[in-house]
């Protein structure tokens, strides 16, 4: 599993299996918390499928070959812009599902809770904790090599799933142990109460992803990258005697878009194109990050209007 696409395919398959099992065991046990866990997983799996599609498009558009040529004809600016859109939509749907479940949980608490079969619930949650924890470790290790925002979000989702299902497991074990005791009256409230707590934990988690996705969609300039580009451009102006420069920087998903305009003093003697290309090579090497996900444009002009 050395590519983003392979890891995502495995994640989708495991998520769909757990989702189906969650809905089945939730209905058998009468636990809306488990049903929500299954539905939540289905939403996550559907968005991971969209993520995989976008990942394939980005990989195809930045690689060589006939497929790349066909895509480049229709999408000359690439597919990086789809990545923050998908991440933002994913985070929004997950938050929406959690808010809806929280409302249902509060309503159930206000109407006396619900009885459930704790044995079925314990079996499902125990298996799910093991599987989710294993997938979290797997995705995290795979992303050390791949370094993908998609895999980072997927690993975070598995960690969250393992932690929340572990909370469900503890609650269900407690509910099973108090059967036949003076605390049995608490049993109907365990499922909606733990569901409400799970939702309160889940709702804020995608906020960071939503914020970053919105920043990417709006082409908000990353401060660190802008400082680095400014430092490289300022040094280039000083070494080559240019009048000034203008830098435009944006982060779009995994893509880094950089446009540099160097203002050349009027009346300079002409130079060969190879000389200007050599300066471009120097600037590109100093900026770093060369690869399919860097979009770097370097322009030399004596007319400031072309740079603003």
Automatic annotation (TrEMBL):
Show the InterPro entries listed in the entry: Cation_efflux_TM, Cation_efflux_TMD_sf, CDF_Transporter
Q: Where is the Cation efflux protein transmembrane domain?
A: 9-214
The record's listing under Pfam families reads: Cation_efflux (PF01545)
Keyword match Repressor? no
What does the record say about its membrane topology?
Multi-pass membrane protein
UniProt keyword terms in alphabetical order? Membrane, Transmembrane, Transmembrane helix, Transport
Q: Where in the cell is it found?
A: Membrane
- List all membrane-crossing ranges: 12-36, 42-64, 85-109, 121-138, 158-177, 189-207
- The name of this protein is Cation transporter
């Amino acid at each position: 599993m050395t590519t983003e696409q392979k890891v995502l395919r495995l994640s989708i398959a495991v998520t769909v299996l757990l989702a189906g099992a969650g809905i089945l065991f939730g209905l058998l046990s009468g636990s809306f918390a488990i049903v929500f866990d299954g539905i939540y997983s289905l939403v996550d799996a559907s968005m991971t499928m969209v993520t995989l599609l976008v990942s394939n498009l980005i990989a195809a558009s930045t690689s060589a070959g006939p497929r790349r040529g066909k895509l480049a004809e229709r999408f000359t600016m690439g597919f990086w812009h789809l990545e923050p859109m998908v991440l933002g939509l994913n985070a929004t749907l997950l938050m929406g599902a959690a808010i809806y479940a929280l409302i249902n949980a509060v309503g159930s608490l206000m109407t006396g809770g619900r009885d459930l079969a704790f044995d079925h619930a314990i079996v499902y949650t125990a298996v799910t904790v093991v599987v989710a924890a294993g997938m979290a470790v797997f995705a995290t290790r795979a992303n050390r090599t791949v370094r993908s925002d998609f895999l980072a979000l997927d690993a975070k989702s598995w960690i969250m799933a393992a932690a929340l299902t572990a909370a469900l497991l503890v609650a269900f074990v407690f509910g099973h142990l108090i059967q036949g005791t003076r605390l049995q009256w608490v049993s109907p409230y365990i499922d909606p109460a733990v569901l409400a707590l799970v939702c309160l934990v889940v709702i804020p988690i995608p906020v960071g992803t939503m914020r970053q996705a919105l920043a990417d969609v709006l082409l908000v300039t990353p401060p660190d990258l802008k400082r680095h580009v400014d430092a490289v451009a300022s040094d280039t102006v000083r070494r080559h005697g240019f009048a000034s420069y203008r830098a435009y920087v944006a982060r779009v998903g995994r893509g880094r878009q950089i446009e540099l305009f160097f203002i050349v003093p009027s009346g300079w003697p002409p130079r060969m194109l190879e000389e200007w290309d050599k300066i471009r090579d120097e600037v590109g090497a100093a900026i770093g990050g060369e690869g399919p996900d860097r979009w770097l444009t370097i322009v030399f002009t004596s007319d400031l209007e072309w740079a603003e």
